[in-house]
Model the fold of this input.
Amino acid sequence: MKTATLASIALAISISAAHAQTIGVSMSGLDKFRTALLNGVVSHGQTISGLKLVTENANGDKELQKQQVQKLIADKVDAIILAVSDGDLGPQMTKMAADAGIPLVYINNIPSNLLDLPDNQVVVASNEKESGTLETKQVCALLKGKGRVVVLMGEPFHAAARARTQDISDVIATPDCKGLQIVERQAAYWSSDHADQQMQEWLSAGVKFDAVIANNDEMALGAIRAMKKNNIPMKDVVVAGVDATDDALAAMLAGDLDVTILQSAVGQGAAAVDAATKLIRKEKVPRENNVPFELVTPENIASYLPKSQ
Done:
């Protein structure tokens, strides 16, 4: 009986070891949203028995991120989840992972080689056509289709920044919103500090505007900070962002932020882990896996407080 018990334990350990999996995670940086994104990956990963996560932060350094991916490959991880710092790095990252036969899941930022990804590489993100469109349509409604707009963009090479900025122009070109005019548009690199500085420059130059449309909440909050320092009443300006971070929702509750769009970091993180584990098992996963955006306003914010980042 004792021998049989020991044999059973040994078999269980053997099976567990056989099913143990390691997923390497490389983040382009850890701002407010991307920290929530990483937390979404880690928290979901912890619910999967035998799964180990190894995480890296490139701090916005493209060369460092390439080195991190090379190390994960050398360490023979079973799959990689990659929040790429620059979509144009996609071809290089794809080749490295493909040459090693390691499944790769791009998360949040869409690689430039999306249409050329091999079968064991996929993207988990959100359809950016929804984000900037929902955001700008709500600003248009609040301004009743007329007004001057300043736009704060993310990193110029980031697919989401390009798409959200194009969404703004597309909405303004529609009949209901053609009375809106973009008077200034500058990159603030997803940063509240850069947005604060840019807003200060616009105010010093005497730029007049009725709304601020930012590619993310961090920049919207930086713009709010600058306007408050210049004693501009927030009730006189419509401010919009994207991500529905905790800080953004707090600003909305305070009456400073008028519009944000929930981009679910938790949803993207969980979907990326699920995609990676399926690819490890050689299961078929769609090339594009979209997590929907949702409009958040002062009227419906209560329903978003429990599940925000």
Notes: The CA atoms of residues 122 and 286 lie 7 Å apart. The first strand starts at residue 21 and ends at 27.
